[in-house]
């Protein structure tokens, strides 16, 4: 490898690791539609090993106070990326009826749910079976 190529690759890897450098995922502050109430969170059914390809595919927008112990059938265990709005918190469960493991996501961008552990062998990618979203 060329001597200048190695530092450039290292810099690129560091920039990818910084929060907020994901191109496809919206910034939490932008979760405000032009008309209607603000969004508490938004789920996406696609993610990728490359952060710029995350937060893609179908979207499920959640208003503040939404409580879904049973997700719609097309969203049961399908979420791969999510964004939580400012001053909001999303609580998720691994099973329908608010059963199984639970996790809270505070305001921020989560482009790859595969990076968040669910027990010893699993992760939160395609694992959300119920949710509750609230804003303060």
Describe the structure in your own words.
- The protein has one domain (24-135): Gamma-B Crystallin, domain 1 (Sandwich).
- With 136 residues, the protein is mainly beta.
- Strand 6 (117-118) and strand 7 form a beta hairpin.
- Strands 1, 2, 3, 4, 5 and 8 form a six-stranded antiparallel β-sheet that branches. The protein has a two-stranded antiparallel sheet with strand order 6-7.
- It contains one helix and eight strands, in the order H-E-E-E-E-E-E-E-E.
- It starts with a helix and ends with a strand.
- Its main location: other.
- It is a peripheral membrane protein.
List the helices and strands and how they pair.
Layout: H1 5-17, E1 41-46, E2 56-62, E3 67-68, E4 81-95, E5 99-110, E6 117-118, E7 122-123, E8 130-135
Antiparallel strand pairs: 1-2, 1-4, 3-8, 4-5, 4-8, 6-7
**Helix-residue proportion:** under 10%
| CATH class value | Mainly Beta
List low-confidence stretches: 4-23
CATH architecture annotation name: Sandwich
Q: Note the gap between the termini.
A: 52 Å
Backbone CA Rg: 16 Å
- Counted by DSSP, the helix tally is 1
Function: Functions in exocytosis in pancreatic acinar cells regulating the fusion of zymogen granules with each other. May have a pore-forming activity on membranes and regulate exocytosis in other exocrine tissues.
Pfam families: Syncollin
Subcellular location: Zymogen granule lumen; Zymogen granule membrane
Keywords: Cytoplasmic vesicle, Disulfide bond, Exocytosis, Membrane, Signal
């Amino acid at each position: 490898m060329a001597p200048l190529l190695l530092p450039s690759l290292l810099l690129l890897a560091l920039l990818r690791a910084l929060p907020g450098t994901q191109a496809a995922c919206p910034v939490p502050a932008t979760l405000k539609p032009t008309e209607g109430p603000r969004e508490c969170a938004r789920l996406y059914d696609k993610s990728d090993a490359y952060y710029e390809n995350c937060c893609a595919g179908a979207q499920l927008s959640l208003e503040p106070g939404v409580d879904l112990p049973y997700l719609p059938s097309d969203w049961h265990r399908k979420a791969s990326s999510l964004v939580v709005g400012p001053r909001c918190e999303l609580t998720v469960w691994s099973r329908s009826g608010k059963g199984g493991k639970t996790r809270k996501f505070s305001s921020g961008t989560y482009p790859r749910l595969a990076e968040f552990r669910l027990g010893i062998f699993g992760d939160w990618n395609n694992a959300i079976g119920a949710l509750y979203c609230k804003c303060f």
